[in-house]
Amino acid sequence: MTNFQLSARLPRIILFAALLGISPASFPESANIADNLPLDVQVDLLMTELSTLLKVDDNEGIIALIPRIRALDIEIPDSLYFLEARALYRTGQALSSRDRLVVYLANTGRDGRYYDQATELLLEVKEEADIQEKRRVEQARLRSEEQARSAEKARTLRIREAQRILQQLGYRDAIENGQFNNATREALAVYQIRHDLQVNGDITDETLRMLESAVPDSHNCDGLARYARAPREWSIAINLIPAQVAVPACNEALRLYPEVIRFQIQYARALFAAGRANDAMTAIEKAARFGYPAAEMMIGELHERGLLSESGKPDLSNAVRWYQFAVSRAYAPAQVKLGELIESGSAGFTRSTEAAIGWYQKAAEQGYPPAQVLLGDRFVSGRGLKRDYAAAMHWYSQAAEVGYSEAEFKLGEMFERGRGVKRNRDSAAAWYRKAANHGSRDAAEKMKRLGG
């Protein structure tokens, strides 16, 4: 009835089916066999189904069914390994077929019922199995490399996140670069000591959770007294900070998160805007001592305006000294400030447009929008540089990409006047509209004039 010796229980179920007028081919498929049937009944049903599949050479069905038989708590005939191997080979799975044949021959030796067929099939599948084996090894290698890359990427992101937060908590040496260096380890160890954590200098889950809870992603203080913390960011000008609401908002942020450097600096900027220079100096002193360039820059501004001198006169010498501290840390706003002093010949500098442009260029290349606009202006005017509208468009466009309203306004002018581009009133209006939406009053006036 079948190609191998079935269990002695098999005839009983077939006889029962015959009495009911049911052919073996109409037995329920294994997927529908209830787990609560007696084990011998399950075996009979599965074996009968296998017999049917063998008769019609349903290799896919055989491959799906045999593992279900093997999963039963019974002694499985070794013949199943050969039958499964043959079905696997016929469906192109030479490697899996080889593995089953090896098991069959190891279990039965020369006494196996299918010994001759198994040895012949093993020789037949060998070449294709070797090819599939190499492919499997290569795929495993590629998966391993991809997993390693993914793990390394995840680790780098984890390191950067820890460094980003440590930077905001006063650990300036933990530079945000994704490298787990000695400076980062030392910063983590100090943080762990200060917060009664396990001290190992590593980014443990507990340490990272505490770091993340120590620094909020945003606060009202950020929108009111923001300063440039990254090259592509820009500060709210001191004279535009609404001191009446900014001071209490930043004071609250600092009360909730006293270690966060950005709130210390923004609180000081709000106090500066409120005319409370001495309080601003007190608030920013810690950040300046830690070497945060935005703090050094602000102290320079306080000196430049004469707000820290008894006479009330500008102290340009001290201002430049603090600006240069920030410049030494490649802080783009300080580079622009130094360029402006040189271009105007102030603070003892020899007046030089070319030297000033060098500083604007350094800041612009870092992606600092105000510097990019300054550089674009020089290319438009031809002052200190050869006039080049295409270069101006390049720098204005760079700054406009991040929504810097002054750059958007400048692009509107370029299209309105046809400088470096074909004159286009619609494009000009579109850029003015963007600039107006980002707070530019000049752009709003342009829109009115254009009828927008």
Provide mean pLDDT, rounded.
90
In total, the number of domains comes to: 3
Low-confidence runs (pLDDT<50, min 5 residues)?
1-31
Secondary-structure content class:
mainly alpha
CATH class of the largest domain: Mainly Alpha
Shape label: elongated
**Helix count?**
21
Overall CATH architecture of the largest domain:
Alpha Horseshoe
The CATH homologous superfamily of the largest domain corresponds to Tetratricopeptide repeat domain
> What is the percentage of strand-forming residues?
under 5%
Number of strands: 0
Biggest sheet statistics: none
Distance between the termini: 89 Å
Q: What Rg is obtained from the alpha carbons, in whole angstroms?
A: 38 Å
Helix content: 55-70%
**Under CATH, the topology of the largest domain is which?**
Serine Threonine Protein Phosphatase 5, Tetratricopeptide repeat
The H/E string reads: HHHHHHHHHHHHHHHHHHHHH
Topology:
Blueprint (H helix, E strand, L loop, with lengths): L9 H11 L18 H17 L3 H12 L8 H12 L3 H15 L6 H54 L13 H13 L10 H10 L5 H6 L17 H14 L4 H13 L3 H13 L3 H12 L11 H12 L4 H13 L8 H13 L3 H13 L7 H12 L4 H13 L7 H13 L3 H10 L2
Helix pairs in contact: 1-2, 2-3, 3-4, 4-5, 5-6, 10-11, 11-12, 12-13, 13-14, 14-15, 15-16, 16-17, 17-18, 18-19, 19-20, 20-21
Structure report:
This protein is an all-alpha fold and 452 residues long. It is elongated. The protein folds into three domains: 133 residues, Serine Threonine Protein Phosphatase 5, Tetratricopeptide repeat; 64 residues, no CATH class; 228 residues, Tetratricopeptide repeat domain (Serine Threonine Protein Phosphatase 5, Tetratricopeptide repeat, Alpha Horseshoe). The protein has 21 helices and no strands.
